[in-house]
Design goal:
single chain, 413 residues, alpha/beta, Aspartate Aminotransferase, domain 1, Aspartate Aminotransferase, domain 2, 7-stranded mixed β-sheet, 4-stranded antiparallel β-sheet, binds D-malate
C-alpha cells in the first residue's frame, strides 16, 4: 500500500483566505442585497500598467510568427528580465546582486514553500507571530514541526511575538535557531523595518550561522528612500539571506504570476561531511529540475515595469493604493480605533473594539458594514484581538467602507 505525507494531517483547518471566502459567500447568499466591500485578501483590483499590457501583446505577437517564436525559455528566467531586476532593484540602490543570482518564478508564495526542498531536516525554525500563514503551513507539510497545541501553535517552531508592547518588532530568539522568516514591509501588521532592525537580524544570523528567509513582496510600498527595501542593503546579508520578491503587489500581477528569488553566491553552508556547499547551486539545481520558467509574455510584461513609462505607471498605481491606506488609517483613528502600519505598506492593522475576538469582529463588521477584512488570529495566536484591512481596492469603495465603519463604530470605541 502506498503512503501519504502524514505531515499534512497535522495542518489545522483550511488555508485562511479560502476560509474567509467561504464565510463571505455564505453571507452573500443569505443577504443577496448586501453591498459587500472586500478588504480581506491582499488582492489587487486595478488594471495592469499600460507598459506591461503593451509588452505582453507584443510578446504574444512574437509567438505567432515562426521567425520570432520561442519554446522553452531558460528555467531561471530570461536575461532581459534578470538584468533589468539587477540594475533597477539592486544596483540602483548600491546593492551588489548580479543577474545570475536572480531566479524568476511564477510566485513568491510558491518559492517560500519550495525553498524548503533545499533545507534539511532538524532545522530549528523561527517564525514571527502574527505571520503570513504560508511560512508555517509549508513547514508543517515538510515535517519541520511537531503537532499543533491547544493555542494553535505547532511544536518545534520558535514563535517570535510581535505585539503592541514591542512595537510589533519581533524579538531575537531566546534560543539559537537555524532558519528565520522575516517579512518587510510586514504582512499582516503593515509595519516596516529600519536599517538598525535588519542589522540586528543579520548580525544574529552571522553569529549563529542561521539562514534568513526575507520576504520583500511589499517593498515597492516603502516611500521613505532611507528605509531599506532589501535585506541585501545590510552588509553581510549576502552570506546569510535569501530574498523573495514579487511583481504581484508591485505591478498588479496577482493573476499574471511573476516573482523572483535572490540566492547570493556568497551564501554557503557546511554539509555533514564538512564540505562547503553553495545554496545558490542547490537552488539552481532544484529550480532547473522542477520548474520550466515563467512564460515569455509574462516575463516581457514584468520587464516593462523597468522602462521609464513603466516605472511611472507603477508609482501611480502604488500611490493610489497608499491613498486608500491613508484613508483607512485616518478614518479609523478618528473613529477611535487603535491603528498600526499602512504608511509603508498596503495593510492597516487595528485593535478590535470592545475586546471582541478577531472572528467576532469579522462577523460584526460583515453584518453591520458589509465590509470584509482578515481576522488577526488567522495569522497566529498573537494576532488575536486584531484585524487587518487591505488597501487594495478602488478609492470609492475604500471611502465608502471607511464611512460605514466610522458611523457604525464611532460611538462604541
Ligand atoms: C494576503 O492577503 O496576505 C496576501 O494576498 C496573500 C498572498 O500574497 O499570497
Amino acid at each position: 500500500m502506498f503512503r501519504i505525507n502524514e505531515n499534512f494531517l497535522k495542518l489545522q483547518s483550511g488555508y485562511l483566505f479560502p476560509e474567509i471566502g467561504r464565510r463571505v459567500q455564505a453571507y452573500a447568499a443569505a443577504n443577496p442585497e448586501a453591498p459587500i466591500i472586500r478588504m480581506g485578501i491582499g488582492d489587487v483590483t486595478q488594471p495592469l500598467p499600460a507598459a506591461c499590457i503593451a509588452a505582453m501583446h507584443e510578446a504574444v505577437d512574437e509567438l505567432a510568427n515562426s521567425t520570432t517564436f520561442r519554446g522553452y525559455g531558460p528555467e531561471q528566467g530570461y536575461a532581459f528580465l534578470r538584468e533589468a531586476i539587477a540594475e533597477h532593484d539592486y544596483h540602483a540602490r548600491k546593492v551588489n546582486i548580479q543577474a545570475d543570482e536572480i531566479f524568476v518564478s511564477d510566485g513568491s508564495k510558491c518559492d517560500c514553500g519550495n525553498i524548503l526542498d533545499i533545507l534539511g531536516a532538524g532545522n530549528r525554525i523561527a517564525i514571527c507571530d502574527p505571520v503570513y500563514p504560508v511560512y508555517v503551513d509549508t513547514n508543517v507539510m515538510a515535517g519541520n514541526t511537531g503537532k499543533v497545541h491547544d493555542g494553535g501553535r505547532y511544536g518545534n517552531l520558535v514563535y517570535l511575538e510581535m505585539r503592541e508592547e514591542n512595537n510589533f518588532e519581533p524579538p531575537l530568539p531566546a534560543e539559537p535557531v537555524d532558519v528565520i522568516y522575516l517579512c518587510y514591509p510586514n504582512n499582516p501588521t503593515g509595519m516596516v523595518a529600519s536599517r538598525e532592525s535588519l542589522r540586528r537580524w543579520v548580525d544574529y544570523a552571522l553569529e549563529h550561522r542561521s539562514l534568513i528567509l526575507f520576504d520583500a513582496a511589499y517593498e515597492a510600498y516603502i516611500s521613505d528612500p532611507e528605509l531599506p527595501r532589501s535585506i541585501f542593503e545590510i552588509e553581510g546579508a549576502e552570506r546569510v539571506a535569501i530574498e523573495f520578491r514579487s511583481f504581484s503587489k508591485t505591478a498588479g500581477f496577482t493573476g499574471v504570476r511573476c516573482a523572483f528569488t535572490v540566492v547570493p553566491k556568497a551564501l554557503d553552508v557546511t554539509s555533514s561531511d564538512g564540505t562547503t556547499v553553495s545554496l545558490h547551486s542547490l537552488w539552481h539545481r532544484r529550480h532547473t529540475t522542477k520548474f520550466n520558467g515563467a512564460s515569455y509574455p509574462v516575463q516581457r510584461g514584468a520587464a516593462a515595469i523597468y522602462s521609464t513609462e513603466g516605472r511611472q505607471q507603477i508609482r501611480d498605481l502604488i500611490q493610489g493604493y497608499m491613498r486608500n491606506a491613508a484613508t483607512i488609517r485616518e478614518g479609523l483613528a478618528e473613529a477611535g480605533f487603535r491603528c498600526f502600519g499602512g504608511v509603508h505598506a498596503p495593510y492597516v492593522w487595528l485593535k478590535t473594539p470592545d475586546g471582541m475576538s478577531s472572528w467576532e469582529f469579522f462577523d460584526d463588521l460583515l453584518s453591520r458594514c458589509h465590509v470584509v477584512g482578515t481576522p488577526g488570529s488567522g495569522f497566529g495566536a498573537a494576532g488575536e484581538g486584531y484585524f487587518r484591512l487591505s488597501a487594495f481596492n478602488s478609492h470609492t469603495n475604500t471611502v465608502q467602507a471607511v464611512e460605514r465603519i466610522m458611523s457604525a463604530y464611532a460611538l462604541k470605541s
